[in-house]
Amino acid sequence: MPFKVDYLDGDVVEWTLTEDGVTHERTQSYTPTLYVSVHGGKDLPEVYATLREHPNVTHARRVEERVSFRHDPSPVLRVDVDSLDAVTTLAHEIAGWGAPGDYRLYNVDFSREFRYCLEQGISPTPARKPTVLELTVDEEVLASEQPTEVVVDDEPLTGDPETVLTDLDRIVDAEDPDVLMLNTSEVVPVLYRAADRLDLDEFQLGRLPGWQQLAGDSTYASYGQVGHSPARYNLPGRAIIDRSNTFFWSQSNLDGCLYLIEQSGKPLQELAWASIGNILTAIQIREARRRGVLVPWHSWRHEQFKTMRQLHEADRGGFTFAPDVGVHEDVHELDFSSLYPNIIVTRNVSPEKIRCDCHAGRDDVPGLGYCICDERGYLPAVLGPLIADRDAIKQELCETNDPERAAELEGQSSAIKWILVSCFGYQGFSNAKFGRIECHEAINAFAREILLDTKQTLEAHGWRVVHGIVDSVWVTPEAGEEQTPLDELAATVTEAVDIRLEHEAHYDWVAFVPMRNSEAGALTKYFGKVDGDDDYKFRGIECRQRSTPQFIEDAQKDLIAALDEHRDIKGVCERLKRWIQKIQTGEVDVEDLVVKNRVSKPLDDYTQSTRNVAALERVENRGLTRSPGQDVEYVVVDDSKQSSDRVALASEGLDEYDVDFYRAQLLRAAESVLSPLGWREGDVEQYLADHKDVSLQAF
């Protein structure tokens, strides 16, 4: 089976990995396919007559297909077109023939390699593990387009551009990797353009000459966050993975990616740049096609009528208990295993089964009055195998002593986890191919009931719930009451709800952090000491935030260790003084003070002189670029200035920094550690000035 599919000069080239290397096969006969259904009184034979004469159509015929999971097979038009580009062009043309919805199109917006594998009924899972060669080119070298240094698997190639390119061509040819791991996809066009200027006609990074640009870079917004999608390129016979644009490789590993290739039918190169939703959709598309269901280009599902009461009850998220701010000893964390995916599977929550006509009036979803069909839905069929696989992987992880096998299993488990995490939210996503808002609402309703019932069970058996959020609860023994062992209670709850409740962790103590400007508890900010271990768990505080400099992260973790060691505020403050001293005496490596922030808009669109703006100005002055959604990394050197001199880029190699700025960052991190004990930043400042002695017993 091919691990890579290339479209070259109108042909399709399949690349298959073998034990001895790689083979390829070229075919000229492949034509991509889309489907058309007619509505609003439009005539299918008339569409057929028109398309049969269309210059981009190689063949058109009437077939019977299901246009959704809720429909039986009905007449639609299958249209084979002469090229990939013609698929979308023709779809837009047909959609414009009538009013919106008169002509509905299916199987239109598939990625190129995935489309071929899906339509040909082949799996792109490689027969052996692909080999990987890493190439890194510095940002400023790329900007100059003079490749005087390329790092190959941590070994630098240096010299004039001709020497570097010649040596690189020789290494790639000798190593013959299946995958090129690049620090940025821009390496491809920059190296090829340099080779063209030097008349190095033999230079090639692929297994055949040439390269292609598949897509330009773009900026997008998702859930209030601006993201950047870099340009994508293609090399014949080799998969390109852009380290700056690969979620699944970065969150799992090659083994995790290979598992998802098998599940989704997405070849490695496409899977590497795909989002979670993209992969989940691919898995769903494969299941839909197995059931004879076409994939809509634009969703036409409608939201069914709801009463005012249903709207009020449905428009809610998962249940949360406000955390009890403070430090709590002897705390246990209990988590439901993959709660939302398991709700989908055990309650048969599926777009085509919820609020079905055959069981109308039955109240299956708590509080909402929705019915769910008894016939098994497609979404549980998609997620059930993933849940079973992850359970088996976790079991094997507990039993294996082989580090290499453990790494493989960890990668697979992480890859599955991200798919399961997204499956719930994707049901409420407006652009989801097979999503439905009623599924989203039903899952939340089941989850709320499960968590409330679990809370009542725990409290009835001597445990006090100090925090709970969506699928997790934290409990501590209720003073003066006898406690039923948690393993017994977990088994009882598991049997009652048909979803496994697991004892996630036992903590010596846990501190729940209040909001920055309120005494109310922050839902996702806490830290604690794991019982019988030297490990700590951190969630939501500065040391877990991507923008936090390494120095501040290290300091905050040390302050938490000081809290554990001394169990009083004075011990933490005294430890803080050491970190402040390091800042003030210049003992800190500037590299550990780098701030990483995401750019939200173009430089010209900013109206305030922020640190990000100063960094972007320096980027522009050095001939570099940053698009919205990309990161900018800098060190604050003089926060009192409003010009680009306020910061220095991480790549500039300076050895100075703004002491007051980083001292303030330290105090902010210290506040997160001490606020569960009632101290805020002002109290810390006062202590540092007066050496005030305060013990934990006061709280």
From TrEMBL:
It catalyses: DNA(n) + a 2'-deoxyribonucleoside 5'-triphosphate = DNA(n+1) + diphosphate. It comes from the Archaea. GO terms for molecular function: DNA binding; DNA-directed DNA polymerase activity; nucleotide binding. SUPFAM superfamilies: DNA/RNA polymerases. Gene3D superfamilies: DNA polymerase family B, C-terminal domain, Helix hairpin bin, Palm domain of DNA polymerase. InterPro entries: DNA-dir_DNA_pol_B, DNA-dir_DNA_pol_B_multi_dom, DNA/RNA_pol_sf, DNA_pol_B_thumb, DNA_pol_palm_dom_sf, DNA_pol_type-B. Its EC number is 2.7.7.7. It is an enzyme of class 2 (transferase). Keywords: DNA-binding, DNA-directed DNA polymerase, Nucleotidyltransferase, Transferase. One of its GO terms (biological process) is DNA-templated DNA replication. Residues 285-675 form the DNA-directed DNA polymerase family B multifunctional domain. It holds the Pfam family DNA_pol_B. Belongs to the DNA polymerase type-B family. This is DNA-directed DNA polymerase. It comes from Halogranum gelatinilyticum.
